[in-house]
Amino acid sequence: MVFYLSQQLLKWSAGTEWARRLSPLRLFSYITVRSAGAALTALALSWWLGPKVILWLKKLKFGQEYVDIAHQTAGSGTGGWDKKGTPTMGGVLIVMTLNVTTLLWAQWNTLIQLTLFSVLVLTGLGFYDDWAKITRQTGEGTTPKVKLWVQILLAGFVAFYIWKLPMHSELRVPESRTVLVSNLATTLMVPFYKYPLSIGVVLGLMVTMLTIVGSSNAVNLTDGLDGLAIGCTLIVSFVFLILTYLAGNIKAAAYLQIPHVSGAGELTVFCAALIGAGLGFLWYNCHPAQVFMGDTGSLALGGALGMVAILIHQPLVLVIAGGVFVMEAASVILQKGYFKWTRRRTGKPQRMFLMAPIHHHFEKKGWHESQVVMRFFILCFLCAVVALSTLKIR
After folding, report:
1. pLDDT score recorded for residue 77
2. How far apart are CA 315 and CA 197, in angstroms?
3. Residue 231 sits in which domain range?
């Protein structure tokens, strides 16, 4: 909205005495300026709305009155029981701030519209799941099958949409002075390798769907300790802030030999808004948390990261940057798989970890909650550095 308003004012003032006075409005045509504006706006909105949203959730009695299943079995003395009654569904603060700020500062192209649509759908799914947990007071919300099917249908729609519509990327090859044009859904960029791989329609659609569904669930599984999920999301978002800017800049993309996606620069504004909204939420979510994001926020944030990665041809870089998310999801899969395998083989089920997701494993080993969170932040930062190194190491 700011971009369109500034351009309209410049157009109106052209050839008049107001042209010189309004010339600073040209700054709003730069993605860097609008990204900075989006981050600061989202942060300010989060700080302003945070106490109001927390109070609103308390009045509606949207608190976690049940004892979370994770803390029922943790027995680690890390304060899980003290969290009973803390407002949940705080993800509405993140999503509301993110959407308003993005619409305010970004150009409304197809990439932005697809991303915001995915965020809203996953927010609705997460909100219903949190609401079911609260009303039932058992910690049991929507069945996993229902959640998974909604995610699959959304991811399938997005995959089909970007396959059918003329959404392509361009990769300039200096050695041969050629330009490789690729479909977003059927071409895969591999980290540390500079040429795109054509993977076909079926595999391409599967990769797109797996990225969105997997990322959404991985962030959801990470959301178990104060500040853990949102902190790691901030670090990964910063990686994609850089990647989207480079992918949207034809000269930078050609120099680094990464795919240039027309309009991807606007996703930089989205990532900046996500960082601002995330920082504002972390202000209230750090230990001891005043509010939890719940599935309302975690499903949406994970889906947003997956969407951004898909739209700039970098789903495998998301695997690297989101290494902590991958580790959390893998720990749950391995735990369940090993439990079933040992029960079938020996008749006595065993566990690979003391508890899954893996952050609770370290709690069981005696780590304080804050220790787990800070050490996972360090791991996430290292993963982010490796992910950014893929820009030069090819």
Report:
1. 41
2. 13
3. 2-7+34-389
